[in-house]
TrEMBL record:
<dbReference type="InterPro" id="IPR024741">
    <property type="entry name" value="Condensin2_G2"/>
</dbReference>
<dbReference type="InterPro" id="IPR016024">
    <property type="entry name" value="ARM-type_fold"/>
</dbReference>
<dbReference type="GO" id="GO:0005634">
    <property type="term" value="C:nucleus"/>
</dbReference>
<protein>
    <recommendedName>
        <fullName>Condensin complex subunit 1 C-terminal domain-containing protein</fullName>
    </recommendedName>
</protein>
<dbReference type="InterPro" id="IPR011989">
    <property type="entry name" value="ARM-like"/>
</dbReference>
<dbReference type="Pfam" id="PF12422">
    <property type="entry name" value="Condensin2nSMC"/>
</dbReference>
Length: 578
């Protein structure tokens, strides 16, 4: 017996037995159950209690696969989970001389180990009757309270997780006032522990565990609103777990997530946070702004409301949320957004000549559209178009791959309807709007269309690019070039750049010709002087256009896929190197 126990201990210390902890635990338990009374006492002291002592003193490592304490803990977990008497009495008897002393040890590692073992064994069961059991439970609660207020953040952290686990599992055993006091303590004090973000993170993890018990919801309904500012915590992991907490709150029937944290706070964080947190916030808000059980008109109404609250946050939301929509939902959403923009254009027209050809049936949501929200609606149309990835006249790949014929047919009809309405909408929007944000959205939407569906715009963009003055804003140049390249007209842009470079060389050569007479020289100088200024301006524009193409990764990548564009790029390169 002693030799086998020694071999097991040696294998654990050599890390060879780490993966066999469950097997060793079962072996210890079965050996104990099969032993007679005298052998049991000997086995308990020599083997089981020895494992307990070694577990309390074992070093902890961040990597579980290399943690000696974890190896011993797994063995003991297999023993303490056996709830058939007299095993629980044996566990309490063997732990008593080790556990209570270790919980008060000076060494923080020993206290942490003892705390883990205590939570694994909870509730310890005494064989001394009801009075002894009540005393033992009170001692356990006192120990837990001490661990939660420990001076070491690591111990406070594991204590929070530990007591939330035992409260969830043993809700009926623990007095209600104990649960209320400890839960209030973590929500009002430990959730704002400035000394350690790990403690604040553990509070969120523990409350998620506690939420899995329906009996806790009435208590948490009163306490969770005190955590509303945790969404703005400086630590990313705390914010992440707080969002997970809100998502779990959303699944309950009694608690509403907006009562825990105001929606305005959530939206404000959506505007500034990173990808990981943003995806959680989108999951949380998706049912509110894109409710699956509501009409698409309700989606538009809430979209307008969203943009009126926070423009950047709303755009970010739809950018992430689009991937959770079906193709048909996205298409219907686009059509309803177009209807709202049409209504705004029609209602803001001053003369009869500006009336639109489209006659739409409008609901209350369309009537609340303001010009500030039009930016957002146009941006959302573009976001949804990107998701659907239309290629007119061919259908989208996503629709073509749809296995259901009826769904594909409906989607095809919606696609045709969208492509019929969008050109007219864009034409009127270009006449109405001239600010940067709206123009950017309009050009991006136009780039998703086929050039043949917008003949006026597609034929005028290149002349506009050619005629732009030197002081044209960069954003406008960017819009025009991006639209042309997406329409597979990048070659024309490069031709224009090459033409301006070569024109500057011709002008330089012209200025170097010999002059035969004074009068002709004066005449020639005037002509060449004017041309050189104009060519210099065009050369500068050529550099600006070329630089933009090279600095924009998506544009440059698309140009390099075209053999004709590559030839022009080589010609420009040879010219610049000459």
């Amino acid at each position: 017996m002693k030799g086998i126990h020694g071999a097991i201990i040696d294998s654990i210390y050599s890390m060879l037995g780490h993966s066999h902890g469950h097997m060793y635990g079962n072996l210890y338990y079965l050996t104990w159950t099969l032993a007679d009374k005298d052998q049991k006492l000997h086995f308990e002291e020599i083997c089981i209690q020895d494992v307990m002592y070694r577990a309390v003193c074992a070093p902890r490592n961040k990597l579980a696969s290399q943690c000696l304490f974890t190896s011993f803990q797994v063995i003991l977990q297999e023993i303490v989970k056996q709830r058939t008497l007299p095993c629980p009495h044996m566990v309490e008897r063997l732990y008593s001389p080790i556990l209570w002393r270790s919980l008060k040890a000076t060494n923080a590692m020993v206290r942490a180990n003892a705390a883990n073992l205590l939570f694994d064994a909870f509730p310890l069961q005494s064989d001394g009757g009801a009075d002894k059991q009540n005393e033992l439970l009170q001692r356990l609660f006192t120990a837990i309270e001490s661990l939660v207020s420990d001076s070491q953040p690591q111990i406070r952290s594991l204590a929070i997780i530990g007591f939330c686990q035992i409260f969830t599992k043993h809700w009926d055993v623990i007095p209600a006032h104990v649960i209320a006091i400890q839960t209030r303590n973590i929500c009002t004090n430990l959730a704002f522990d400035s000394s350690s973000p790990k403690v604040r993170q553990s509070v969120m993890e523990g409350l998620i565990i506690l939420l899995s018990n329906p009996f806790s919801h009435r208590l948490l309904q009163k306490l969770l609103p005190s955590l509303s500012n945790c969404i703005h915590d400086a630590n990313e992991k705390v914010r992440l777990f707080f969002m997970d907490l809100l998502i779990n709150v959303k699944k309950t029937d009694l608690i509403s997530f907006w009562d825990v944290c105001p929606v305005n706070n959530i939206i404000a964080q959506l505007d500034v946070d990173n990808h990981t947190i943003t995806s959680r916030i989108v999951d949380l808000l998706e049912g509110s702004f894109l409710p699956p059980d509501q009409n698409i008109k309700v989606w538009v109404k809430r979209c307008i409301n969203f943009y009126s609250r926070n423009h950047n946050a709303a755009r970010k939301f739809y950018l992430y949320a689009k991937d959770n929509l079906s193709i048909i939902e996205a298409e219907k959403f686009i059509l309803q957004l177009c209807a709202s923009v049409f209504y705004f254009l029609q209602s803001s027209s001053d003369t009869s000549s500006e009336k639109l050809e489209e006659n739409q049936n409008h609901d209350e949501s369309s009537q609340n559209v303001s010009e500030n929200c039009i930016d957002g609606l146009l941006e959302t149309i573009f976001i949804m178009l990107q998701y659907v990835t239309y290629q007119v006249p061919s259908m989208t790949q996503k629709v073509a791959q749809d296995a259901q014929k009826e769904t594909t047919a409906e989607s095809r009809n919606l696609a045709k309807l969208i492509m019929t309405k969008l050109p007219g909408l864009l034409h009127n929007c270009f006449k109405k709007f001239h600010d940067k944000r709206k123009l950017n959205s309009l050009f991006q939407i136009s780039a998703c269309m086929h050039p043949s569906s917008m003949p006026v715009l597609s034929k005028s963009i290149l002349p506009k690019l050619r005629a732009l003055p030197e002081d044209s804003p960069d954003y406008y140049i960017k819009m025009l070039i991006q639209c042309l390249v997406k329409w597979n007209m990048g070659r024309e842009v490069l031709d224009l750049v090459h033409e301006w470079f070569t024109a500057s060389t011709d002008a330089t050569q012209t200025t170097s010709k010999p002059r035969r007479s004074t009068s002709s020289a004066r005449k020639y100088q005037k002509t060449v002087g004017f041309a050189s200024i104009q060519n210099e301006c065009r050369v500068k524009q050529a550099v600006i256009y070329l630089r933009f193409c090279m600095e924009n990764e998506s544009i440059w990548e698309k140009l390099l896929k075209d053999k004709n564009c590559i030839k022009i790029i080589y010609s420009i390169s040879d010219f610049l190197n000459s």
